Task: inverse folding
């Protein structure tokens, strides 16, 4: 803007010089001098006005700064008074008073409990002595027992494939990984995929993970299976990303890998070498393993989260967890059985069933319902804002598309759909 003003002054001075030369018959020197004088006078007036404007702006800024400093001084004085008040308090004396009150309260509670116990004993003895008017009447039916508020945890059955047969199958490279979609309601589009290890038997049939995953011992085999799953997941994620259809994969992970120094190091090295796709990898950890993590294993979990990968906790029996702590450790989703959650939500949480998903969403954690078996369950889950579901009713597990796996001799299935 200032350059435009200078250009206008120059043009005006030139016009005045031309007018003096042609209209007033000035000599060229006089005309040029007149134009220069006019331009200088205009520039002086312009600079003076700009300087006055800058001085006014500076004065206003100084006044604002002085007001801010005065406010800060007042705040400092109030803070100093509060600090002095805190320094003058005697927390030790107050703590002793509170401890004495608690001690007295405990004594009173104990005396009340003893008095109630004595009264109950006297009432029981009086009932035994007093004959009941209904003693000769027969009880027709006993009252129905109250429903249990908690569900008994059933231990998982032992695998039907022994360790030696599993070891030989791994040596023969008969371990394959299928995928099962995690759908997003209401469109039922695939939001992610679970990597499911399966064992190809000698007769050509496929055995699921419950049939061969070791329950006692065989930690080296579990580490080997999880390592193969990670390698396959990385290959699928990289190739799908190259093809323009990135996917989110959930990979099984247990303490067998997290607790082994070499396996944990290989896991971190793999994630470090594939940071471009790390955000699309989520490790599926059972609740029993997550709750029993040691300090060293928790450090590995934190390192995995720092590299961009996330976690999903499966087989949850309760949602009464520190969600903020889980989110800080990289947990992205919590999995519950759809049937148990809809039938007995009070076992899982104290929240209303329609509020739990929104509460988890505050910490960027999703609630994922597994084992969906009926259309009614889908409607109930959608009504309660639970939009991530999985189950054979939604989509059954199947092999990975041939061009995305490491080996080319595996069956071909429908293409992986892009993660929503």
Result:
């Amino acid at each position: 803007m200032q350059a435009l003003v200078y250009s206008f002054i120059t043009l005006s001075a030139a016009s005045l010089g031309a007018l003096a030369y042609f209209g007033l018959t000035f000599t060229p020197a006089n005309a040029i001098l007149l134009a220069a004088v006019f331009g200088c006078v205009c520039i002086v007036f312009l600079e003076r006005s700009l300087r006055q404007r800058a001085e006014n702006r500076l004065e206003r800024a100084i006044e604002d700064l002085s007001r801010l400093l005065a406010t800060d001084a007042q705040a400092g004085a109030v803070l100093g008074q509060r600090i002095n008040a805190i320094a003058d308090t005697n927390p030790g004396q107050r703590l002793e008073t509170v401890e004495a009150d608690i001690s007295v309260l405990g004594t009173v509670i104990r005396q009340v409990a003893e008095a109630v116990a004595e009264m109950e004993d006297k009432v029981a003895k009086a009932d035994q002595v007093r004959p009941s008017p209904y003693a000769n009447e027969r009880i027709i039916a006993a009252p129905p027992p109250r429903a249990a508020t908690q569900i008994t945890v059933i231990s998982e059955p032992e695998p039907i494939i022994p360790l030696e047969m599993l070891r030989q199958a791994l040596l023969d490279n008969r371990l394959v990984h299928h995928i099962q979609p995690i759908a997003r309601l209401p469109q039922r589009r695939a939001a992610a995929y679970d990597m499911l290890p399966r064992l190809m038997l000698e007769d050509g049939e496929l055995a699921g993970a419950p049939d061969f995953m070791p329950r006692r011992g065989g930690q080296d085999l579990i580490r080997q299976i999880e390592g193969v799953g990670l390698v396959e997941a990385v290959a699928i994620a990289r190739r799908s990303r190259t093809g323009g259809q990135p996917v989110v994969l959930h990979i099984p992970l247990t303490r067998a890998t997290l607790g082994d120094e070499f396996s944990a190091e290989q896991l971190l090295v793999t994630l470090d070498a594939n940071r471009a796709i790390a955000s699309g990898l989520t490790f599926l950890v059972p609740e029993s393993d997550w709750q029993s993590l040691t300090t060293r294993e928790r450090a590995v979990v934190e390192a995995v989260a720092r590299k961009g990968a996330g976690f999903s906790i499966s087989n949850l029996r309760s949602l009464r967890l520190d969600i903020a702590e889980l989110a800080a450790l990289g947990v992205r989703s919590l999995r519950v059985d759809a049937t148990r959650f809809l039938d007995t939500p009070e076992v899982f949480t104290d929240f209303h069933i329609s509020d739990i998903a929104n509460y988890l969403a505050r910490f960027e954690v999703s609630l994922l319902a597994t084992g969906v078996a009926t259309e009614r369950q889908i409607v109930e889950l959608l009504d309660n804002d639970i939009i991530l579901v999985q189950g054979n009713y939604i989509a059954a597990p199947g092999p990975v598309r041939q061009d995305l796996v490491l080996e080319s001799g595996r069956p071909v299935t429908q293409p992986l759909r892009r993660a929503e």
Notes: Confidence is low (pLDDT under 50) at residues 130-154, 408-420.
